Amino acid sequence: MANFDLLGAAEPLMKRYYNDGRVYSMAYKNRPLLGMIPKKTGVVGGSPFGNARGGYQVALTTDEIAGESARFGSAVTARDGTSHIVWDMNRVKRYATSTIDGETVDAMTGVGAFMEATRPLMTSGINQISNSLSLMLYGDATGVRGQVASKGTGATANVLTLTAASSYLARGLGLKRTIVSSTDTGGSAAPDGESTGTKITGISINPGGQATVTVASATNISAGDYIFLLGDYTTSSDVANVCFDGLGSWGPAPAGVGAGDSFKGVNRSVWKEKLLMLHQTIPVQSTAGDGSFVRNIREALAVQTANEGSPDAIFVSPERWAQIESDLANNARYNMEMATDGKTGFKTISFASAGVNVYADPW
Questions:
Q1: Are residues 262 and 152 in the same domain?
Q2: Which one, of 199, 147, 141, 150, lies nearest residue 170 by Cα?
Q3: What distance in Å separates the CA atoms of residue 244 and residue 143, rounded to the nearest whole number?
Q4: Which domain does 156 fall in, by range?
Q5: Residues 278 and 304: beta-carbon distance below 8 Å
Q6: 282 and 354 share a domain?
Q7: How many Å apart are CA 229 and CA 173, to the nearest integer?
Q8: pTM for the complete prediction?
Q9: List of residues 6+ apart from 36 with CB closer than 8 A
Q10: What is the pLDDT of residues 158-183, one digit of tens each?
Q11: Rounded to whole angstroms, what are the CA distances from 18 to 12, 24, 131, 146, 326?
């Protein structure tokens, strides 16, 4: 065994076992937005795109020509070109690692034993990275995994209760992982004395309630702190390269976007309904079964369509999906939509009149 290249012998088998179809299926399961969003798979490193980090460029038109009129002279007088901007879309790396102890390796009798030992580790790594990607798709590029609302005392001193608004983010923490906390999300403050981090030892997530996270030590964590995985928070200039921009960046709440807003060079405040990724706030019904949630969704779709949008999908939490299903009752129409791999399917409720499918996404 000393002269046998076990890893080299296993590599072809691992590539065959973890082929594209298998990896996509593992990554997309229970992650509809990750599965449905179009992929750019042909991007390679830097120089052809003028981007050393690897990526590609997207040219956008941010407004239309001004020279239009019933009179030719007026159209000529008012003429003006379109405004353009080029976005550099960067690649963001993500790693997952684990170990196999030496005694286990020495006891392996061949490639088959190596495959059996590594398969659960590989599966777990793909699962963890897929969770992070799903979380980032809805995030704001900060990498935040929750915000502490309060911490326990006495016997529960290491129990952290997350804010209601961030409780769903606890799904992206997972057990045993190391976290750090900071008073801000923008990389301007150092971690709160947790430079080496603390381990997560317990999580409780209840739909509709606030999540709690138990850690090995909460001595340096305070109410109001933001939680990050170790390595996802940095005070260096590289802070913007830790996570990619998700829907929290592309379509934040309109109320928080003021004059002079600039996202990748585009001032979205001049036409919020269109330039904020057609963001609409949909009130939750106050009386169960009154149908107001579905009605509010229809009205939001109408606003988007009026502002030149063509919505085709709505992603909601499983609880909201169940609410829509109950409101529509016998009028609910179900579809099975395929992910970009052409194999993984997601059950949807169809708003037939608007041509929109609703997906239940826990992220």
A1: no
A2: 147
A3: 9
A4: 148-241
A5: yes
A6: yes
A7: 7
A8: 0.82
A9: 313, 337, 339, 340, 346, 359
A10: 999 999 988 888 888 888 889 988 88
A11: 10, 9, 18, 32, 40
